Amino acid sequence: MDKEIFENGQKVPLVEEFYTLQGEGYHTGKAAYFIRIGGCDVGCSWCDTKFSWDPDLHPVVDIVEIVNRAAKYPASAVVVTGGEPLMVNLDPFTSLLKKEDIETFLETSGAYPLTGEWDWICLSPKKNSPPTGSIHQHADELKVIIAEDSDFEWAIEHAGLVRDDCKLFLQSEWSVSEIMLPRVIDFVKENPMWNVSLQAHKYMRIP
Question: What is the pLDDT of residue 1?
Fold first, then answer.
């Protein structure tokens, strides 16, 4: 990974980009252009995008090219995801998106310092590499993946760190959803400040 190129922010390791509907969390069902950036060292065993972890496997693309493609779609909304997108300096990227009047949405574990100008930040903290800095106070949405019972305590811990107006979501890990989704449902019924997030894109069979 060429740190100098990515710290400068003019190019990113691009895994994939596609126009679809948001499948998770608060904005489920809304159209957006998704940009998946390569590179992640958080290492969740259940990750469904492990192909994105090694940035050296993906082409290094100029951000101007990506923004030009995103601007062609009617939603005028971009979701930046990964991997862990904050491994790259996203200030120049979001600046270009804003010049095109495109809304910016970030999906992050918070394991790296926050860069970029965002209309919405979804923080999904991971035990392997907890959030750093003041990311909790910038989060508009907290989405915690529930793969085992101890993850409920992890969720409660991080809910105590975000702003009062932050939206709270629990999402059962897909491979154990038959076991964990009923427990998530019961937890939300007992703790109604939380909401259930489903991976709706998988049910709709879209990217």
Answer: 54
